[in-house]
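Good morning,

Attaching, inline, the backbone tokens for the sequence recovery test we're adding to the shared suite. The designed sequence is right after.
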């Protein structure tokens, strides 16, 4: 049965308009993105098969171009479309941090950092530079590779903080393994950065570790 033959309140598009996007399942949301199914399958049927094939919606989004395009019903055009949607989502989230309001909700920062960093297959060390009212000045990806004292340079972080005239910073880096537990190396480099920035009176507010979850080192009492 074609989706157009379904009851109106069960059709993904109509359901979204009536009840909001949060009311839809992963398969229904993906079906709207796919727009059409394949021979003998509705878009919802195809979406369910794809999620089962890849293991999850996130795994589908993280797939390489080659792997993505090998799946039934997908291809280069859909891959390009998906990458554009994901990038727009990241930019939307960052704009929500740049609206000039002080950062008062750690969950807002968590949500943005998870969207920005969780898909990297290598470690990336980043910094949110803030003004005296804890409003976002700039977000920079500063270093790549294994995050330890050999790959994160406090002098470079200090130079960047002076460049932006920042009063405070929030650090973040990802664990590609998905395990967001702070390591001993994370604690050591955070302390070195805190000491270096303290010399120019820039406060370190937090250091988030991004994996399947997002862990705040400040909430753990590690800063």
């Amino acid at each position: 049965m074609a989706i157009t033959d379904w009851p109106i309140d069960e059709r993904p598009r109509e359901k979204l308009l009536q009840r909001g996007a949060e009311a839809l399942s992963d398969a229904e949301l993906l079906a709207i993105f796919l727009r059409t199914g394949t021979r003998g399958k509705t878009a919802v049927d195809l979406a369910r098969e794809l999620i089962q094939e890849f293991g999850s919606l996130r795994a589908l989004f993280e797939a390489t171009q080659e792997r993505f395009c090998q799946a039934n019903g997908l291809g280069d055009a859909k891959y390009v479309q998906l990458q554009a949607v994901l990038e727009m989502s990241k930019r939307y989230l960052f704009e929500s941090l740049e609206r000039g309001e002080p950062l008062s909700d750690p969950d807002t920062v968590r949500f943005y950092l998870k969207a920005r960093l969780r898909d990297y297959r290598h470690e990336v060390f980043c910094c949110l530079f803030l003004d005296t009212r804890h409003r976002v000045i700039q977000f920079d990806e500063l270093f790549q590779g294994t995050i330890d004292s050999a790959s994160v340079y406090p002098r470079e972080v200090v130079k960047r903080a002076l460049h932006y005239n920042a009063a405070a910073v929030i650090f973040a880096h990802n664990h590609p393994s998905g395990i967001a537990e702070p390591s001993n190396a994370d604690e050591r480099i955070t302390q070195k950065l805190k000491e270096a920035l303290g010399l120019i009176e820039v406060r370190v507010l937090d250091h988030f570790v991004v994996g399947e979850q997002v862990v705040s080192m400040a909430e753990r009492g590690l800063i």
